[in-house]
Amino acid sequence: MFKIRQRNCMLIVTALVLAPCIVILIVMGPELSNEQSLTQRLAECHMRLQYLESMYRARQEDVALLSQYFGQLQQNGNMTTSFPPPLPVANLLDGLSPEARQLLKNASHTTKAGPGGGMVAKQNIRLPNAYHFLPHLLDDAGSLRPSYLQSKGRTDVSIVLGIPTVRREKQSYLLGTLHNLIENMNEEEQNETLIIVYIGEIDAEAVQVIAKQIVTSFEQQVEQGLIDIIAPSPSYYPNFERLRITLNDSLERVKWRSKQNLDFAYLMAYAHSKGTFYVQLEDDILTKRQFITTMKKFALIKSALTKPDQPSWFVLDFCQLGFIGKMFKSAELPYLITYFQMFYNDKPVDWLLTYFIESKVCRTDKDQKHCNQEKAKYWQHFRKSLFQHIGTSSSLKGKVQKLKDKQFGSKVPTFYAHTHNPPALVKSSIAPYKNYLLKRAYRGESYFWGLLPQPGDLIQFVFEQPILLRRYLFRSGNSEHPSDRFYNTTIELLPSDSLSENSSVWSNYNTTTDGFLIVGSFDNLGVAEGLLDPKIGPLKELRLHVHSDSENWALLSEIELQEIGNGSKSDENVAKPRYASGS
Fold first, then answer.
1. Which residues contact 93 (CB under 8 A, 6 or more apart)?
2. What is the phi-psi region of residue 467: left when phi exceeds 0, alpha when psi lies from -120 to 50, beta otherwise?
3. Are strands 227-231 and 193-199 parallel, antiparallel or unpaired?
4. DSSP letters of 76-88?
5. What is the DSSP letter of 332?
6. pTM as predicted
7. Rounded Cα gap, residues 129 and 341, in angstroms
8. Cys staple from 133: which of 200, 233, 279, 341, with CB 3.0 to 4.6 Å?
9. Is 575 within 8 Å of 473 (Cβ atoms)?
10. Mean per-residue pLDDT for 232-247?
């Protein structure tokens, strides 16, 4: 009897618990079903919206292509004088969608009947291009048109050097890098090279400032066509605030590396028709003598030794750091450009290069060792690095970059010694730092490093005996402190004998109130050098005269005063390239 009562109690409790649940299911069931249906419909609408957006972008692409088509017709003067248009112009229409091409045919009443009166279908399949990966480019017809271009049209060179640069908050290494690259090329190498400086700034004023610095400092090289300067349209870049956060990086870092990928893609796109090989560099590096000849010879040897049944190299590596010193065949750059455009928001540029090579050669059924062996066939390394990274202030705010390539070889010299300077008393109103004294720099033992120069500061060389000076050379800054240069500083001489009023020297040089001749000044690269007019005669004193405040300290890494008749001694210590290092 007790067990029956216990069973009845259990049934009653179960009924009491289940009854509310059944009521809830009966009442809420349709609502849950409606919510699921609504969710599916929203998902369907979202996918439909994505499709419609892609169609809208396709129409925008048609408009962009037609704009380029008519623009080139006008530029070539063919709007009314030539039909059909030249082939390169007409080929633009091949990129139009089938619908747009059909509309053009209908508008021009040009149709072609097939057998039996039917229409002949000649529609091309439309392949993805930059507009699919970077749809924001369609928002402005001029998004791929450079906002600044300085070029003499040099093409068909052996090697193109690509150097991206931006405005840096602390110090810029660009001019020193260009100076070092050019100094380490002979005339033949310069004639078969093109240096492209890409200014990755959207602010027009910043672009103009950087471009003016380059043109002013390297006027001859720009005029000869050795240096091209290019900057993209601001609309080339997407809205960086809307980028996806990837790799758990901060938004600032994602923006920085995504922009770098797009900068490399634009630079490579401009460069790929300019020469046989393309070498990616950075704006804070130094190199070795005859690096152009060395790279070209290595590339040609590797190409010649490739057997017909073996894969040809894809990248030759002349530096162990990041993306510095990577050489590609220009004809193969479009592969990288497209890859960078596809994944610009996902990974840093040097990672993308690694993944690109792995995608070409690595197999899922093999281990990492096999993958590395296959990669080595496509990515080959030069035995010693030709480039060294010298910058410490990254273009990413707050990032300090101290990486050095150990394969570069001997340490980069911080000064160049000249031990045959004439005897003199040296003194300066610029306070020296620690043991970096002016007298030690003059004797060739170290370099002079002084605290912030002020207007009126002097560095004086008072000769023990009046001397006939043939040449002078002062080089400021060095590889470790490239911005510690002399700015707005003149070279002034005091003759030991009074010059006659009729002397031609007075018409050739300006003078100071205390009787010094102003014979030169430091240039934008921090160098002052020149040959002196023998009519000036013997000198009592030579001095450097600072005329303005400086934001940096001042460093003299080379001092050479060459006397007339002592050329044989000084020739042993001729001025070397600013950052050159032995190979």
1. 65, 69, 101, 104
2. beta
3. parallel
4. HT-TTT-SSPPHH
5. G
6. 0.70
7. 9
8. 341
9. yes
10. 96
